[in-house]
Amino acid sequence: MPNIYKTFFVAVLLISMGIILVLLKLAPGIDNLAVALVTLGLSTALSYILLVLPAEKKLALVESIINCGIENIFKNRHQAVSNVLEYFEEALHKGGNVKIMAVSGTQFFFPNAPFEEAFLKLLTSKIEPQLSVQVLLIDPFSVGGMERIIAERNLPQTTLLNRQQIEESLLFKRWAAACEIFNNWRGVIQGNVVNLEYRFYSSSAVMYLIRFNDALFVEQYHNGPIDFKGLLVLGGRVPMIQYKSNSEAFKFYDKHFDFFFKRAVNICPSSTL
Fold it and tell me: CA–CA separation, 8 vs 53, rounded Å?
């Protein structure tokens, strides 16, 4: 029997006994005992409702989180920055495989981005064993890329974009900038043990993902723009979840990345590393 039913059974039993004693008046002073029983019954029920039940719900939530292999939950990706940086530092010393899936990688490759310094450190590291870095960004000319542009500009879903509109979009400009940055890095990592691969996927952007050997961070994207303080927001405002490396979710997300990476292409001009 669940705890909630046991508690209310005891409370109802105590209250019932008190009422029966009042009605029967079996002995002098029995009224005081009846009042005590009724009071005890009511306090038992109220204590459970106000104290025990909320605690049990929280414990059940914690148990579910642990069972899912969740290490941490952040309100948004911005609050996860310090934790992600710790794993960048760990990868810098231990090597392994780092995987990144994003829309345009603004948090990683652009000046003053939260992870720019840490990412560049990885590329210039001399660590052993070898470090592998794989990056997936969206292709602005693909169906998924055009969907993203339409969402970013809050255009009707049926809008058909021409090449000029695509090249005028923020997504295209960031893609072109990322290509230039990757090309510049070619000389930087020459001769290092770091293996950098970057490709562009064509499907809709569904998640922001950072995968290290011992942790995986993931945030769901949304295509319905939300007006946040005068800005159209498509990401960065929903919870980011950190999974343990031994969790089922880690394995599924890891395979999700591999699935798209194998089918993605490198479309930057003169950008083969």
Answer: 12
What average pLDDT does the structure give for the chain?
79
Which own/partner contact pairs does 183-191 have at CB distance under 8 Å and 24+ positions apart?
183/268, 183/270, 183/271, 185/120, 185/123, 185/273, 186/271, 186/273, 188/120, 188/123, 188/124, 189/123, 189/124, 189/273
Answering whether pTM is above 0.85, one says no
CATH architecture of the domain covering 70-263: 2-Layer Sandwich (3.30)
Which pair of structure tokens corresponds to residue 192?
């290092």
Question: Count of CB atoms within 10 A of residue 217's CB?
Answer: 23
Domain range summary for the chain, segments of one domain joined by +? 3-67, 70-263
The tokens 């479309």 sit on which residue? 267
Give 34's pLDDT tier (boundaries 50, 70, 90): low
**62, 80, 240 from 76: Cα distances, Å:** 19, 7, 5
State the Cα–Cα distance between residues 240 and 51, nearest whole angstrom. Answer: 30
